[in-house]
Design brief:
By secondary structure, the chain is an alpha+beta fold. The chain has 8 helices and 12 strands. It has one domain: Cysteine proteinases (Cathepsin B, Chain A), CATH 3.90.70.10.
């Protein structure tokens, strides 16, 4: 089991422990067993059994934290006596920010930690310009250049949650969008691939084994200047409970969070996910949280994944809220654009 902080250990064990079943995690039989137990969500076929090793890589992109942060953060900055609405969707609150509606694709690379960060950064630049400045922050630049165990992590082999936001403050991250999108200085260089069972126009992810791209301090788009394309953030904030996360999203926009992935999550299709406690974890996964709500009496976080639009609910999923399920409310970060 991969855990993020010592504090999170008890929460993970308490709400996400499981017992092993003698079924392959991507098999039809395993999916059927999920649907027999899950009361608030539905599972379905997202991956083939032979994709197991690759799927574990993209679902385990958050490295376990072994030491305290080496920089100062602002922890739980909000007054929790403030009221929040029962439901909130950043896409509806800031409708002119196109990045809020974009689902990216990390391809066959464990770079979720970078995607969760740059997606929220892109949203926040737009939100804090009164929805007038739409910039896409580059996952490519962050994934390749903030490299090392004492930096953001190991690129396609996983990274951390708070460190990318500190790197945004100290070094800056250039603009850049999805593969071949021409949305800035450095678009993502790893081609989108077919993560899932449906056969489409993209190459099969199983045929690709990407290494972390080389860090290049120049724009792929020759008409743009690297230095002039840099975006920057301010001091990093972290949030360790439901109310703090809600207030931050309500006031400033989406945040990055991470949670422990259990095998059943890989087959999510709809509803409010909560682990069915069947077996051991795959690892840690980082995502963008953009809102919350209540579905048939169950509170949830509204989350954007980075596995393209044909996973889950058009690339999104709902996740049990308010009980630190799988550590979702223990490992978070965000900051304001500079």
């Amino acid at each position: 089991m991969k855990l993020f902080t010592p504090i999170a250990v008890l929460a993970f064990v308490a709400v996400c422990h499981g017992t092993s079943l003698d079924l392959h995690p991507l098999s039809d039989e395993y999916i059927a067993s999920i649907n027999e137990k899950a009361t608030t969500w539905k599972a379905g076929k997202n991956f083939e059994v032979e994709d197991w090793e690759r799927v574990k890589k993209i679902a385990a992109g958050v490295l376990p934290r072994k030491a305290a942060l080496r920089f100062v953060t602002q922890s739980n900055p909000h007054d929790e006596s403030e009221e929040v609405p029962e439901s909130f969707d950043a896409r509806e609150n800031w409708p002119r920010c196109d990045s809020l509606k974009q689902i990216r694709d990390q391809s066959s690379c464990g770079s979720c930690w970078a995607f969760g960060a740059v997606e929220a950064m892109s949203d926040r630049i737009c939100i804090h310009s009164d929805q007038s400045k739409q910039v896409y922050v580059s996952a490519e630049d962050l994934n390749s250049c903030c490299f090392g165990l004492f930096a953001c992590g190991m690129g396609c082999d996983g990274g951390y949650v708070a460190e990318p936001w500190e790197y945004w403050r100290t070094d800056g991250i250039v603009t850049g969008g999805a593969y071949n999108s021409s949305q800035g200085c450095k678009d993502y260089s790893l081609e989108p691939c077919e993560h899932h069972v449906e056969v489409g126009s993209r190459p099969q992810c199983s045929s690709l084994n990407y290494d972390t791209p080389e860090c290049v301090r120049s724009c792929y788009e020759s008409s743009l200047d690297y230095t002039e394309s840099l975006t920057f953030g301010q001091q990093v904030s972290t949030f360790t409970n439901e109310k703090q996360m809600q207030l931050e999203i309500l006031k400033n926009g989406p945040i990055e969070a991470a949670f422990t992935v259990y095998n059943d999550f890989l087959s999510y299709k709809s509803g409010v996910y909560q682990a069915t406690a069947q077996d051991e974890s795959v690892g840690g996964h980082a995502i963008k949280v953009l809102g919350w709500g209540v579905e048939e009496g169950t509170k949830y976080w509204l989350i954007a994944n980075s596995w393209n639009t044909d996973w889950g609910d058009n690339g999104y999923f709902k996740f049990l809220r308010g009980v630190d399920h799988c550590g979702i409310e223990s490992e978070t970060a965000a900051s304001l654009p500079a």
